[in-house]
Each structure stands twice: as C-alpha cells, then as structure tokens.
Amino acid sequence: MMELYLKNNLEISRVTTSNYSTSFSLGVRMLSPEYRRAIYAIYGFVRYADEIVDTFLNYDRKTLFEEFEQETWKAIDRKISTNPILHSFQWVTNHYNIDHDLIEAFLYSMKLDLNEKVYDEEMLRTYIYGSAEVVGLMCLKVFYSNDPESYEKLKLPARKLGEAFQKVNFLRDASDDFEGKGRIYFKNIDFNNFDIETKRKIEAEIALDFKEAQIGLKSLKKEVRFGVYLAYKYYQNLLRKIVAAPPENILKQRYRVSNTRKLLIMLNTFARNQVNML
C-alpha cells in the first residue's frame, strides 16, 4: 500500500506542476519517463515554498514557513509525511541522495523574501543561488545520480541556467515585485527611473548566463536533453519579448510567451535536438 501512497502523492506533485507552470510541465513531459516523477516532486516542493512567501500575504507567513521548513526536515528524516507534496519531496531527496545543503540554501532564500526588500550585490548572489541555481542542481542530481563525474562537470552550466531563468523572472515579474511587494532584486536599480541603458545592461548579463548554460546543454544525455533544451528556448524567447519592450512597460505588464509560439518553439527545438544542433 505504500507504493500506492507514493504514487498518489507523486501524481499530486504532477498536477501541481501542471497547474502552476504549463511551460515547465511541458518541458518535464519531454524528459525520459524515468525522470519525470522526480522532477515533478522537486517542482511541487519549491512551488509550495514560494507560494507561502509570495502569495499568503494576509496570513502569518513567517510562522507558516517555519512550520513548512520543520515539516520538510521531519519528512526527510522519517521518510514519510502526511503532506503529499512533502512526501513526494522526501522520496526524491532520499532516493537520489540530494545534498541537504542544497535544500538548506533554497529554504534560506525563501526566508529572505519574508524580510528583504532591496538586495545588495552579495545578498542577490546568495538569493539567486538558493532560489534558482540549487533547483537546477537538484534536477541534475536526479539525471546523474549514478554518474558523479558528469554531475560535477555539469554543475556550473546547471547553475548558470538557473541564474538566467531567475533573472528573466525578475524582469517579467518586476511590476508585481516592485509595485506590489516593494522588492528590488537588481543592485542599484531605481525602477521609478528605469532607463534603456540600465535595462540593456541587465539583459546583457542574462544573455551571458544563457551562453554559459548552453555549453552544458550540449553535453546532457539524450534522455533529458530535449526537455531541458525546451525550457531553455522558452526562456530565451521570453527574454526576447522583454528586450523588445520599452523600459517603462516593464512595470506595466507581465510578459509571457503565447501558446501558439510555445508550440512553434517545441517543434523547432525537437528538430534541432534530433540533429544535435543546440
């Protein structure tokens, strides 16, 4: 019966992924079946943590997050939880021997969002590492759990990909973060006077992160390469939309890639992946 319990909880993680991110969910479906459940479990966990700090604004977020953090470690230690998302996450953590330091870094970054409003350069590096880079490393551990040499080789590109995704998210969500929550992630940025030069500087940093991440994409094994490459292309297209937008519009709307465009990206990505033209 424990197999059924795990199966049910992993299905909840899959549904959570699908409900919150159609793009990421589609990318996961492009992975070899043996990896999908684990990646859904990771996403479900990070999504719930992010919901507490970003969405539960009318509740005692600090207490709720402390309880979530405590239950996370209990689940990992006991190898069971009555919370389906945490049970799925403890399974992937224990099954694939995910480094607990990665989980600690993630939880720390989430707690920063409970208090920090303006991030200096050092704090921003810490935040991006914990909120995005370690998630890439968790996924990489799943992909290469029995191949530590490849895991070590691909760690830097995986981190760069997570960094690129997070910085794109910062620009995409600038309106809600700045106007709604008073957060400023980029150093020395005055969104009240956000000009084209500042915007281009940030976009250039992100483009460089994508370039460094691409090196690792080419080395991924075929069972996972298409799914990761698809997510990479989605975010590159989202960045292009943001690059084309005037600075003043960044605080007026949340940019997204249309479903039609996503389909075209998927078809093009599939063709390029087939001939290893990444």
Can you tell me about this structure?
With 278 residues, the protein is mainly alpha-helical. It has two domains: 1-95, Farnesyl Diphosphate Synthase, CATH 1.10.600; 124-278, Farnesyl Diphosphate Synthase. It is 76% helix and 0% strand. It has twelve helices and no strands. The protein has helices spanning 2-20, 22-29, 33-54, 61-78, 84-95, 100-115, 121-143, 148-172, 174-181, 196-217, 222-244, 259-274. The longest helix has 25 residues, at 148-172.
Q: Average pLDDT across residues?
A: 89
- Gross morphology is globular
Q: What share of the residues lie within helices?
A: over 70%
Q: What is the CATH architecture annotation of the largest domain?
A: Orthogonal Bundle
SS element count, helices = 12
Please give the largest β-sheet: none
**Which oligomerization state do the chains in this entry correspond to?**
single chain
Name of the CATH first level of the largest domain: Mainly Alpha
H/E element order: HHHHHHHHHHHH
Please report the distance between the alpha carbons of the first and last residues.
44 Å
- The total count of strands amounts to 0
How much is the radius of gyration in Å? 19 Å
CATH topology heading of the largest domain: Farnesyl Diphosphate Synthase
Number of domains: 2
Strand content: under 5%
Q: Are there runs of 5+ residues with pLDDT below 50, and where?
A: none
| Class from helix and strand fractions | mainly alpha
* CATH superfamily membership of the largest domain: Farnesyl Diphosphate Synthase
Name the descriptors:
about 280 residues; Farnesyl Diphosphate Synthase; about 0% strand; 12 helices; globular
